[in-house]
Protein backbone atom coordinates (compact mmCIF):
# COMPACT_ATOMS: atom_id res chain seq x y z
CA UNK A 1 0.00 0.00 0.00
CA UNK A 2 2.03 2.99 -1.24
CA UNK A 3 1.16 6.67 -1.31
CA UNK A 4 -0.01 6.46 -4.92
CA UNK A 5 -2.43 3.90 -6.31
CA UNK A 6 -0.86 1.27 -8.55
CA UNK A 7 -2.22 -1.46 -10.80
CA UNK A 8 -3.63 -4.38 -8.72
CA UNK A 9 -4.11 -2.20 -5.62
CA UNK A 10 -7.49 -2.32 -3.94
CA UNK A 11 -9.31 1.00 -3.89
CA UNK A 12 -12.36 2.15 -1.96
CA UNK A 13 -14.31 4.97 -3.61
CA UNK A 14 -16.71 7.07 -1.58
CA UNK A 15 -19.44 9.41 -2.89
CA UNK A 16 -20.87 12.48 -1.13
CA UNK A 17 -23.67 10.37 0.39
CA UNK A 18 -21.16 7.98 1.95
CA UNK A 19 -21.85 5.15 -0.54
CA UNK A 20 -18.75 2.98 -0.89
CA UNK A 21 -17.51 0.70 -3.63
CA UNK A 22 -14.38 -1.42 -3.67
CA UNK A 23 -12.43 -2.91 -6.56
CA UNK A 24 -8.91 -3.83 -7.74
CA UNK A 25 -7.25 -1.50 -10.22
CA UNK A 26 -6.66 -2.88 -13.71
CA UNK A 27 -4.99 -1.19 -16.65
CA UNK A 28 -7.82 0.25 -18.83
CA UNK A 29 -10.36 -1.15 -16.34
CA UNK A 30 -13.76 0.49 -15.80
CA UNK A 31 -16.04 0.60 -12.78
CA UNK A 32 -19.73 0.94 -13.62
CA UNK A 33 -22.37 2.13 -11.16
CA UNK A 34 -25.51 4.33 -10.96
CA UNK A 35 -23.25 7.39 -11.23
CA UNK A 36 -21.75 6.33 -14.56
CA UNK A 37 -18.31 4.98 -15.25
CA UNK A 38 -15.07 5.54 -13.36
CA UNK A 39 -11.94 4.80 -15.41
CA UNK A 40 -9.30 2.89 -13.47
CA UNK A 41 -6.62 4.79 -15.37
CA UNK A 42 -7.90 8.01 -13.71
CA UNK A 43 -7.16 6.46 -10.31
CA UNK A 44 -3.82 4.77 -11.06
CA UNK A 45 -1.08 7.22 -10.04
CA UNK A 46 -3.43 9.29 -7.83
CA UNK A 47 -2.91 9.76 -4.12
CA UNK A 48 -5.13 8.29 -1.42
CA UNK A 49 -7.44 11.09 -0.25
CA UNK A 50 -7.73 12.67 -3.71
CA UNK A 51 -10.85 12.57 -5.89
CA UNK A 52 -11.92 11.24 -9.24
CA UNK A 53 -14.94 12.11 -11.38
CA UNK A 54 -17.25 9.64 -13.11
CA UNK A 55 -18.56 10.09 -16.66
CA UNK A 56 -21.80 11.52 -15.18
CA UNK A 57 -19.89 14.10 -13.11
CA UNK A 58 -20.13 12.42 -9.69
CA UNK A 59 -17.08 12.98 -7.51
CA UNK A 60 -15.65 10.04 -5.60
CA UNK A 61 -12.99 10.25 -2.86
CA UNK A 62 -10.26 7.60 -3.15
CA UNK A 63 -9.04 5.54 -0.21
CA UNK A 64 -7.36 2.21 0.48
CA UNK A 65 -9.87 -0.12 2.15
CA UNK A 66 -9.23 -0.82 5.82
CA UNK A 67 -9.46 -4.39 7.05
CA UNK A 68 -13.08 -3.75 8.15
CA UNK A 69 -14.00 -2.18 4.78
CA UNK A 70 -12.51 -5.16 3.03
CA UNK A 71 -14.19 -7.84 5.15
CA UNK A 72 -17.62 -6.26 4.71
CA UNK A 73 -17.18 -6.08 0.93
CA UNK A 74 -15.26 -9.26 0.09
CA UNK A 75 -17.01 -12.29 -1.47
CA UNK A 76 -18.27 -14.72 1.14
CA UNK A 77 -18.73 -18.44 1.01
CA UNK A 78 -19.39 -18.96 4.71
CA UNK A 79 -20.74 -16.34 7.13
CA UNK A 80 -17.83 -14.24 8.41
CA UNK A 81 -16.91 -13.11 11.90
CA UNK A 82 -17.62 -9.38 11.93
CA UNK A 83 -14.92 -6.79 12.58
CA UNK A 84 -16.39 -5.90 15.99
CA UNK A 85 -15.50 -9.38 17.28
CA UNK A 86 -12.00 -9.47 15.77
CA UNK A 87 -10.47 -7.07 18.28
CA UNK A 88 -11.96 -9.01 21.19
CA UNK A 89 -10.68 -12.31 19.82
CA UNK A 90 -7.17 -10.97 19.19
CA UNK A 91 -6.94 -9.38 22.64
CA UNK A 92 -8.64 -11.98 24.83
CA UNK A 93 -7.00 -14.94 23.10
CA UNK A 94 -3.74 -12.97 23.33
CA UNK A 95 -2.76 -13.51 19.70
CA UNK A 96 0.80 -12.17 19.79
CA UNK A 97 3.48 -11.44 17.17
CA UNK A 98 5.32 -14.67 16.38
CA UNK A 99 2.52 -16.95 17.69
CA UNK A 100 1.84 -20.36 16.14
CA UNK A 101 -1.93 -20.48 15.67
CA UNK A 102 -4.40 -23.05 14.38
CA UNK A 103 -7.70 -21.74 13.03
CA UNK A 104 -10.77 -23.86 12.19
CA UNK A 105 -13.01 -23.46 10.20
CA UNK A 106 -11.47 -20.98 7.89
CA UNK A 107 -14.75 -20.14 6.11
CA UNK A 108 -14.34 -16.98 4.04
CA UNK A 109 -11.00 -16.09 5.63
CA UNK A 110 -12.19 -12.90 7.35
CA UNK A 111 -10.79 -13.78 10.75
CA UNK A 112 -7.68 -15.25 9.11
CA UNK A 113 -6.74 -11.74 7.94
CA UNK A 114 -6.83 -10.36 11.49
CA UNK A 115 -4.97 -13.39 12.83
CA UNK A 116 -2.24 -13.02 10.19
CA UNK A 117 -1.88 -9.35 11.00
CA UNK A 118 -1.62 -10.04 14.72
CA UNK A 119 0.99 -12.84 14.45
CA UNK A 120 3.03 -10.86 11.93
CA UNK A 121 5.77 -12.18 9.64
CA UNK A 122 7.41 -14.28 12.37
CA UNK A 123 4.21 -16.13 13.28
CA UNK A 124 2.56 -19.12 11.65
CA UNK A 125 -1.12 -19.72 10.88
CA UNK A 126 -2.49 -23.14 10.01
CA UNK A 127 -6.10 -23.44 8.86
CA UNK A 128 -8.27 -26.58 8.90
CA UNK A 129 -11.36 -26.22 6.68
CA UNK A 130 -13.83 -28.97 5.85
CA UNK A 131 -15.01 -27.61 2.52
CA UNK A 132 -12.65 -27.37 -0.41
CA UNK A 133 -14.64 -24.54 -2.05
CA UNK A 134 -14.54 -22.45 1.15
CA UNK A 135 -10.81 -23.11 1.58
CA UNK A 136 -10.22 -21.87 -1.98
CA UNK A 137 -12.44 -18.79 -1.51
CA UNK A 138 -10.68 -17.96 1.77
CA UNK A 139 -7.30 -18.16 0.09
CA UNK A 140 -8.43 -15.84 -2.70
CA UNK A 141 -9.85 -13.36 -0.18
CA UNK A 142 -6.83 -13.32 2.09
CA UNK A 143 -4.23 -13.14 -0.69
CA UNK A 144 -6.08 -10.29 -2.39
CA UNK A 145 -5.79 -8.20 0.76
CA UNK A 146 -2.50 -9.42 2.25
CA UNK A 147 -0.46 -10.58 -0.76
CA UNK A 148 0.87 -14.12 -0.99
CA UNK A 149 4.04 -13.84 1.09
CA UNK A 150 2.35 -15.33 4.14
CA UNK A 151 3.24 -17.97 6.72
CA UNK A 152 -0.19 -19.53 6.22
CA UNK A 153 -1.47 -22.79 4.88
CA UNK A 154 -5.01 -24.10 4.69
CA UNK A 155 -5.68 -27.83 4.82
CA UNK A 156 -8.97 -29.33 3.68
CA UNK A 157 -9.81 -31.59 6.61
CA UNK A 158 -12.13 -32.28 9.53
CA UNK A 159 -10.75 -30.94 12.79
CA UNK A 160 -13.08 -33.21 14.80
CA UNK A 161 -10.88 -36.11 13.68
CA UNK A 162 -7.78 -34.66 15.30
CA UNK A 163 -4.96 -32.14 15.10
CA UNK A 164 -1.57 -33.15 13.69
CA UNK A 165 0.34 -30.12 14.92
CA UNK A 166 1.84 -29.93 18.41
CA UNK A 167 3.32 -27.01 20.34
CA UNK A 168 0.66 -24.59 19.12
CA UNK A 169 0.35 -21.35 21.07
CA UNK A 170 -3.29 -20.68 20.26
CA UNK A 171 -6.32 -22.46 18.78
CA UNK A 172 -9.13 -20.33 17.34
CA UNK A 173 -12.46 -22.02 16.52
CA UNK A 174 -15.57 -21.01 14.59
CA UNK A 175 -17.33 -24.36 14.24
CA UNK A 176 -20.78 -25.86 14.72
CA UNK A 177 -19.53 -28.28 17.43
CA UNK A 178 -16.43 -26.76 19.05
CA UNK A 179 -16.67 -29.11 22.05
CA UNK A 180 -15.44 -31.91 19.76
CA UNK A 181 -12.06 -30.17 19.57
CA UNK A 182 -11.31 -29.83 23.29
CA UNK A 183 -9.54 -33.18 23.76
CA UNK A 184 -7.49 -32.69 20.55
CA UNK A 185 -6.56 -29.19 21.68
CA UNK A 186 -5.20 -30.52 24.99
CA UNK A 187 -2.58 -32.49 23.06
CA UNK A 188 -1.85 -29.84 20.45
CA UNK A 189 -1.25 -26.76 22.60
CA UNK A 190 1.82 -25.76 24.58
CA UNK A 191 1.31 -25.63 28.37
CA UNK A 192 -0.42 -22.35 29.13
CA UNK A 193 -1.66 -22.20 25.52
CA UNK A 194 -5.11 -20.83 24.83
CA UNK A 195 -8.24 -21.92 23.03
CA UNK A 196 -10.94 -19.49 21.92
CA UNK A 197 -14.24 -20.43 20.36
CA UNK A 198 -16.81 -18.22 18.64
CA UNK A 199 -20.40 -19.56 18.61
CA UNK A 200 -23.62 -17.81 17.59
CA UNK A 201 -25.69 -19.85 20.03
CA UNK A 202 -25.31 -19.91 23.82
CA UNK A 203 -26.09 -23.64 23.94
CA UNK A 204 -22.91 -24.20 21.88
CA UNK A 205 -20.94 -22.13 24.38
CA UNK A 206 -22.43 -24.05 27.32
CA UNK A 207 -21.60 -27.44 25.78
CA UNK A 208 -18.05 -26.23 25.14
CA UNK A 209 -17.75 -25.03 28.75
CA UNK A 210 -18.96 -28.42 30.02
CA UNK A 211 -16.30 -30.18 27.95
CA UNK A 212 -13.63 -27.71 29.14
CA UNK A 213 -14.71 -28.36 32.73
CA UNK A 214 -13.81 -32.07 32.24
CA UNK A 215 -10.39 -31.31 30.76
CA UNK A 216 -6.99 -29.89 31.63
CA UNK A 217 -8.16 -26.45 30.57
CA UNK A 218 -8.94 -23.84 33.23
CA UNK A 219 -9.56 -20.10 33.62
CA UNK A 220 -12.52 -20.47 31.27
CA UNK A 221 -14.77 -17.52 30.55
CA UNK A 222 -17.59 -16.73 28.14
CA UNK A 223 -18.57 -13.25 26.98
CA UNK A 224 -19.87 -11.23 24.04
CA UNK A 225 -18.98 -7.88 22.49
CA UNK A 226 -21.72 -5.27 22.25
CA UNK A 227 -20.89 -2.36 20.00
CA UNK A 228 -23.34 0.52 19.96
CA UNK A 229 -22.89 3.42 17.58
CA UNK A 230 -23.87 6.98 18.51
CA UNK A 231 -25.73 9.49 16.39
CA UNK A 232 -23.93 12.84 16.70
CA UNK A 233 -25.51 15.68 14.77
CA UNK A 234 -25.56 19.15 16.40
CA UNK A 235 -27.73 19.00 19.50
CA UNK A 236 -29.01 15.54 18.59
CA UNK A 237 -26.54 13.35 20.43
CA UNK A 238 -27.82 9.92 21.39
CA UNK A 239 -27.17 6.22 20.82
CA UNK A 240 -28.16 4.92 17.38
CA UNK A 241 -31.69 3.53 17.37
CA UNK A 242 -30.56 0.37 15.66
CA UNK A 243 -27.59 -1.85 16.34
CA UNK A 244 -26.30 -5.31 15.57
CA UNK A 245 -27.45 -6.73 18.88
CA UNK A 246 -26.01 -10.19 18.43
CA UNK A 247 -23.27 -11.96 16.52
CA UNK A 248 -21.64 -14.60 18.71
CA UNK A 249 -20.43 -15.66 22.14
CA UNK A 250 -16.74 -16.12 22.82
CA UNK A 251 -15.40 -18.79 25.13
CA UNK A 252 -11.75 -18.69 26.08
CA UNK A 253 -9.66 -21.02 28.28
CA UNK A 254 -6.01 -21.85 29.07
CA UNK A 255 -4.29 -25.20 29.14
CA UNK A 256 -3.11 -25.79 32.68
CA UNK A 257 -1.32 -29.12 32.26
CA UNK A 258 2.23 -30.01 31.32
CA UNK A 259 3.06 -30.90 27.75
CA UNK A 260 2.38 -34.58 27.15
CA UNK A 261 2.87 -34.63 23.39
CA UNK A 262 5.38 -37.07 21.90
CA UNK A 263 7.31 -34.09 20.65
CA UNK A 264 7.68 -32.60 24.10
CA UNK A 265 8.74 -35.88 25.75
CA UNK A 266 11.36 -36.29 23.02
CA UNK A 267 12.71 -32.88 23.86
CA UNK A 268 12.78 -33.68 27.58
CA UNK A 269 14.54 -37.02 26.96
CA UNK A 270 17.10 -35.33 24.76
CA UNK A 271 17.72 -32.71 27.40
CA UNK A 272 18.38 -35.37 30.07
CA UNK A 273 20.77 -37.48 27.99
N1 LIG B 1 -14.41 -17.51 10.88
C1 LIG B 1 -14.65 -17.57 9.43
C2 LIG B 1 -15.98 -18.22 9.12
C3 LIG B 1 -16.06 -19.67 9.50
S1 LIG B 1 -17.65 -20.38 9.12
C4 LIG B 1 -14.57 -16.17 8.85
O1 LIG B 1 -14.47 -15.19 9.60
O2 LIG B 1 -14.58 -16.04 7.62
C5 LIG B 1 -17.44 -22.01 9.73
C6 LIG B 1 -16.59 -22.87 8.85
O3 LIG B 1 -16.31 -24.09 9.51
C7 LIG B 1 -17.28 -23.27 7.53
O4 LIG B 1 -16.48 -22.88 6.46
C8 LIG B 1 -17.36 -24.79 7.62
O5 LIG B 1 -17.17 -25.44 6.36
C9 LIG B 1 -16.22 -25.11 8.57
N2 LIG B 1 -16.34 -26.38 9.28
C10 LIG B 1 -17.47 -26.93 9.80
N3 LIG B 1 -17.18 -28.10 10.41
C11 LIG B 1 -15.84 -28.29 10.31
C12 LIG B 1 -14.94 -29.31 10.73
N4 LIG B 1 -15.39 -30.37 11.40
N5 LIG B 1 -13.61 -29.18 10.43
C13 LIG B 1 -13.17 -28.11 9.74
N6 LIG B 1 -13.97 -27.10 9.31
C14 LIG B 1 -15.29 -27.19 9.58
Task: Supply database-style keywords.
8 helices; 4-stranded antiparallel β-sheet; alpha/beta; binds S-adenosyl-L-homocysteine; 273 residues; 7-stranded mixed β-sheet; 30% strand; Vcp-like ATPase, Chain A, domain 2; Rossmann fold
Top-tier CATH class of the largest domain = Alpha Beta
Order of helices and strands: EEEEHEEHHEHEHEEHEHEEEEH
* Uncertain segments: none
Rg measurement, Å: 22 Å
| Oligomeric state of this protein | single chain
Count of distinct structural domains: 2
Structure description:
The protein folds into two domains: 56 residues, Vcp-like ATPase, Chain A, domain 2; 202 residues, 3-Layer(aba) Sandwich (Rossmann fold), CATH 3.40.50.150. It has eight helices and 15 strands. The protein has a seven-stranded mixed sheet with strand order 9-8-7-10-11-15-12, sandwiched between helices. A four-stranded antiparallel sheet has the order 2-1-6-5, covered by helices on one side. Helix 4 links the parallel strand 7 and strand 8. The radius of gyration is 22 Å and the shape is globular. 33% of the residues are buried. The model has no long low-confidence stretch (mean pLDDT 94). The structure holds S-adenosyl-L-homocysteine (SAH). S-adenosyl-L-homocysteine binds next to helix 4 and strand 8.
Helix-strand blueprint:
Blueprint: E1 10-14, E2 20-24, E3 30-33, E4 36-39, H1 40-43, E5 51-53, E6 59-63, H2 67-73, H3 83-92, E7 100-104, H4 110-119, E8 124-129, H5 132-146, E9 152-156, E10 168-173, H6 182-188, E11 189-199, H7 202-213, E12 217-223, E13 230-233, E14 236-239, E15 249-255, H8 262-272
Parallel strand pairs: 7-8, 7-10, 8-9, 10-11
Antiparallel strand pairs: 1-2, 1-6, 3-4, 5-6, 11-15, 12-15, 13-14
Helix pairs in contact: 3-4
Bound molecules: S-adenosyl-L-homocysteine.
Amino acid sequence: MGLFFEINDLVLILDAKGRRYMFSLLEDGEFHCHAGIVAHNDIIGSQAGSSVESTKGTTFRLLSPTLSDYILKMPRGAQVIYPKDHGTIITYADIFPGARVLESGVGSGALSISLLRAIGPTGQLIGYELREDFAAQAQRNVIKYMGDDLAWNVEVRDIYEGIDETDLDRIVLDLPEPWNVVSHAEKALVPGGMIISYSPSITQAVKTREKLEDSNFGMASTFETLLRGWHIDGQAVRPDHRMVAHTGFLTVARLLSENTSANASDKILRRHK
